[in-house]
DNA sequence: TTGTAGGCGTTATCAC
DNA sequence: GTGATAACGCCTACAA
């Protein structure tokens, strides 16, 4: 019994007294099987505990049903929320998700993609890092679709989903002006990813255009602790900013905590704060952070429907790009509103 | 070219001027190939962009390399942290993770396991819900190993990893006594999972034994909002508890926010609070929550090493159980310490 | 060390 | 509608 623990279609066919093909057809949606055969096959399968072997099926059909999710820092609130949304959409589309954790290096993304190829993944969705051009080409050549979320890359082939980060930055400048702030700041991480930099760019240029005093500070990765450090740097300046736009909610939470608890500043009376991502904690009573909501549903929906529907092949050769708009969620970290 | 986008070992063999088996051996660790053949194969493979097809390899070797992670509410801080740890350990062990999101129902877990079988997963790790006995048997019969984390189940076969929840509850009662609290409470969710109930049991019995006034409130799922509701219920009682043990950090955060911001209570002076999980937010300045740290590393390590090393088969027939001890992390939500 | 032959479990094709 | 037969891409004896 230990020698043959796997039940194959052959076994089912034998028990049901039909041919292997009949079994196969029974489990192939839209194949023609008589009701009687079907019934007998199903019963035999049930009794034997038979399940179709997707590895073998994928081999034949040349479609594995596997979609790779490539991500680093997956335990972060924003990332895990996006991951959840993607996973759910993918499952609803009948796909199965293979999760690959990378560190922040680009070649670890390359390794992840290589694994995706080995497992004949139908598509890869990349949430962190940026693969080498040659790898991307390799994936495409292997018939794999690719989706890049919040990555900047202008190679043709992958679908790129981005947010209007620069515009968001501009909007915040306006919001601060309406709140009566004249000297403002941008708190960024050193990660230097395109979306982070775009927010900075939009904010700084708009603030300057509005005649505000604006400064920028960058430190560490985009986490809570970095936010505290950024607060120390910005709030000890000769002229203290009245409002700061944090590149990320996590930064904003750290910033707010330091501002209140260590500098005794009250938000929003003495300091206006805006974040980005709308992580769950942004809505917590201690923060009530005004922030931009990532359109997670829209992102997941776009990604999944794009890679599922077999669109025209020539379409694939073009650069496909989707630009989504984040919603500004008003809470209580900015005056007025 | 669109007709044959896949490069097979056959193509590589042709280009390298060797047989298909030589190619196969080159990519099989520990097979005997001459250095020269190996070199030529590797070169041809590189030029062609060949990658071993794991689906086909898995079919032959009867080992897919796939391990399923079955989880609901994966975006929650504790769950995502555990997920990350497991994923990393699994990857380091050369496995590839298949992520399956379930809702909280047990039959959705069953479906997930069925999928695991279809993909010939070598093992499944279950973080939420509890599969039906028959499904578990089916998995085991299909040669699949199973790990249940923080689930209660006494079927033989799966490895069960649990925490000493009841003991943790008892420890908290002692901590509260040392802080000079006489009337205490346990804030729980209605989920009623074994680990949550064990914490409650341990705490309540120990508190009673210490002669304390103890009450219990249960509401909703184990999230931030539920914590706020629980605070409302417990803090409006005729005799207000001086200390409460929350079943979860998320509950504790909600509880603390409501206590401070809506009831004007100061923690820990007027109210002592202890949580469970040690999620990242528990360390944030606004909370500084005294809590139990889940031994995530130990859990992941135990799970992965158990399902990777080919231990004796008869061992599998016994109930394997691992009982881990959570560390109490002292922060500032309890007096004394 | 190397090549040949057979099989893993499935589906697609084609006669019946 | 049904059953043989030939793939799919790979691995593993076995013989050379």
User: How far apart, in Å, are the first and last alpha carbons of chain A?
Assistant: 70 Å
Number of helices of chain A: 13
CATH superfamily (homologous) name of the largest domain in chain A:
Response regulator
Mean pLDDT of chain A: 93
**Percent of residues in beta strands of chain A:** 15-25%
The tally of beta strands of chain A, per DSSP, is: 12
For the largest beta-sheet of chain A, the strand count, sense and barrel status come to: 6 strands, parallel
CATH architecture of the largest domain in chain A: 3-Layer(aba) Sandwich
The computed structural class of chain A is alpha/beta
**How would you spell out the order of helices and strands of chain A?**
HHHHEHEHEHEEHEHEHEHEEHHEE
Shape of chain A: elongated
Q: Biggest interface and which pair forms it?
A: A-B, 58 and 58 residues
Tally of distinct domains of chain A: 3
Here the CATH topology of the largest domain in chain A equals Rossmann fold
Helix content of chain A: 40-55%
Q: Indicate the low-confidence ranges of chain A by residue numbers.
A: none
The CATH C-level class name of the largest domain in chain A: Alpha Beta
Quaternary state of the chains: homodimer
- CA gyration radius of chain A, whole angstroms: 26 Å
């Amino acid at each position: 019994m230990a020698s043959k623990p796997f039940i194959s279609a052959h076994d089912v066919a034998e028990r049901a007294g039909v041919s292997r093909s009949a079994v196969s057809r029974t489990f192939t949606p839209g194949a023609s099987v008589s009701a009687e055969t079907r019934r007998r096959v199903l019963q035999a399968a049930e009794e034997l505990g038979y399940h179709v072997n997707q590895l073998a099926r994928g081999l034949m059909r040349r479609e594995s049903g596997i979609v790779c999710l490539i991500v680093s820092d997956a335990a972060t609130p924003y990332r895990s929320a996006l991951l959840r949304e993607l996973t759910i959409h993918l499952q609803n589309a009948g796909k199965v998700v293979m999760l690959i954790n990378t560190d922040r290096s680009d070649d670890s993304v390359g390794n992840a993609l290589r694994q995706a190829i080995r497992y004949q993944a139908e598509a890869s969705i990349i949430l962190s890092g940026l693969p080498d051009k040659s790898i991307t080409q390799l994936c495409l050549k292997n018939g794999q679709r690719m989706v890049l979320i919040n990555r900047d890359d202008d190679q043709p082939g992958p679908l790129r989903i981005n947010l209007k980060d620069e515009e968001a930055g501009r909007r915040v400048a306006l919001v601060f002006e309406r709140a009566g702030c004249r000297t403002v700041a941008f708190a960024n991480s050193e990660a230097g990813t395109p979306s982070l930099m775009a927010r900075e760019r939009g904010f700084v240029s708009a603030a300057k255009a509005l005649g505000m005093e604006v400064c920028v500070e960058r430190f560490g990765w985009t986490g809570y602790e970095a936010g505290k450090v950024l607060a120390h740097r910005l709030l000890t300046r000769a002229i203290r900013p009245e409002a700061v736009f944090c590149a990320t909610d996590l930064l904003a939470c750290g910033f707010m905590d330091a501002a209140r608890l260590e500098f005794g500043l009250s938000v929003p009376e003495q300091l206006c704060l805006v974040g980005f991502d709308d992580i769950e904690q942004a809505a917590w009573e201690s923060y009530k952070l005004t922030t931009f909501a990532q359109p997670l549903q829209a992102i997941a929906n776009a990604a999944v429907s794009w890679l599922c529907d077999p669109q025209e092949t020539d379409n694939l050769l073009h650069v496909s790009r989707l630009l989504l708009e984040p919603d500004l969620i008003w809470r209580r970290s900015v005056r007025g509103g």
